[in-house]
């Protein structure tokens, strides 16, 4: 009896060790006290947060690896990004970064505590255009009438954004510079609080991510004037592009992707990229991202690194030409 018990115990132990070995061979990190910590450099309810929670849920179910989403808003994404840049490179902390935290901020903020080489890009998750929305109390019904209204009332209209350095900020600044309008720029700590004030009429307009504003547009609580992509968005088929609205060459796409701290073992990077690529192929995930007006990513780390490098250079050029600086 004792021998049978010993054999069964040994068999269970060997099974557990084999499972652990398989996990290590796959590149899955061994995290003490839990699973993966996914840092969101924005407030709950915004696009970055929505994407992070979608991916975290599917990653936990797909891999059996616990994922905890942690919001660290503020500083246009710099607080959360800096937290991950300083984290231990053991594969247990990852950033759901975006165009603001991991591209635009390098051009805008000369005193950042982190830089592009403080991260190991994993993969892009998805990309989505912004949409120009106004509170229904604003009389403008299209882009050109909004421009006329702003010029008739200089310094009176308030333009919200989700944080200094975010794509919503930069898109608004480009719009202001291209049109020559005089508006009040109002930064928030994320999309959600900015949209809340827009809905309440505390601010008048905003370039917001389609994913956040779409439900309010469909409910008639916000009026959409144009999207910032080169073609119309399937989620908002009746909303023209900025080019169709008379703003040629106005093309901005917000992207979201995962970044490990620099020097994270390549095996962990490959494991997470492979898991995310698989998740992004699931019909339910693709349907959700399509409803947000976005396109899925999933590329290999090297390809994502090249894309990020290109974005960093592009926004540096825009900032230099426009003379935009953080206050």
Automatic annotation (TrEMBL):
Keywords: Signal
Pfam families referenced in this protein's UniProt entry, alphabetically: TctC
The keyword Signal is annotated on this UniProt entry: yes
Keyword Transport: no
Coiled coil: none
Signal peptide per UniProt: 1-25
PANTHER family in the cross-refs: BLR1237 PROTEIN (PTHR42928:SF5), TRICARBOXYLATE-BINDING PROTEIN (PTHR42928)
Record family assignment: Belongs to the UPF0065 (bug) family.
Protein's name in the database: Tripartite tricarboxylate transporter substrate-binding protein
Organism: Bordetella petrii
